[in-house]
Amino acid sequence: MVFLVWAGLAVPFLLVALATSRFVSLYQRWRSRLVWVERFAGVMLIGVGMLVFFDLFQELSYHLSFFTRFAL
Questions:
Q1: Are residues 39 and 57 in the same domain?
Q2: Domain count, the chain
Q3: Measured between alpha carbons, how far is 63 from 56 in angstroms, rounded to an integer?
Q4: What is the pLDDT of residue 72?
Q5: Residue 64: Cβ within 10 Å count
Q6: For residues 51 and 57, is the Cβ–Cβ distance under 8 A?
Q7: Is residue 5 part of a domain?
Q8: Could you tell me if 27 and 37 lie in one domain?
Q9: How far is CA 49 from CA 8, 20, 33, in A?
């Protein structure tokens, strides 16, 4: 029983250790483009914050609700 608990705790950490080198190589390839991703995320964060501040987020939700008909 203790072995099962140990395995349940160890397996996620082992998977992360194995995937780290792949993530580092992927990060190095995309590092130059991440500046634009961060800028886009910042603009989106400011935009959503303004929508919430001016109580217009519900309007956006209403206009984008047609996407829910494609959900399973």
A1: yes
A2: 2
A3: 11
A4: 63
A5: 9
A6: yes
A7: yes
A8: no
A9: 40, 34, 25
pLDDT tens figures, 1-53: 888 888 888 999 999 999 998 989 988 988 888 899 999 999 999 999 999 99
What predicted TM-score, i.e. pTM, was given to this entire model? 0.56
The DSSP call for residue 64 is: T
What is the distance between the alpha carbons of residues 44 and 31, in angstroms, rounded to a whole number?
Answer: 20
Within a domain: 60: yes
Instruction: Return all residues near 50 (Cβ < 8 A) that are at least 6 apart.
Output: 56
Same domain, 40 and 62: yes
What single-letter amino acid sits at 66?
Answer: F
The residue range of the domain holding 9 is 1-31
* 44 and 59 share one domain: yes
21 class by beta-carbon count within 10 Å (0-12 exposed, 13-18 middle, 19+ buried): exposed
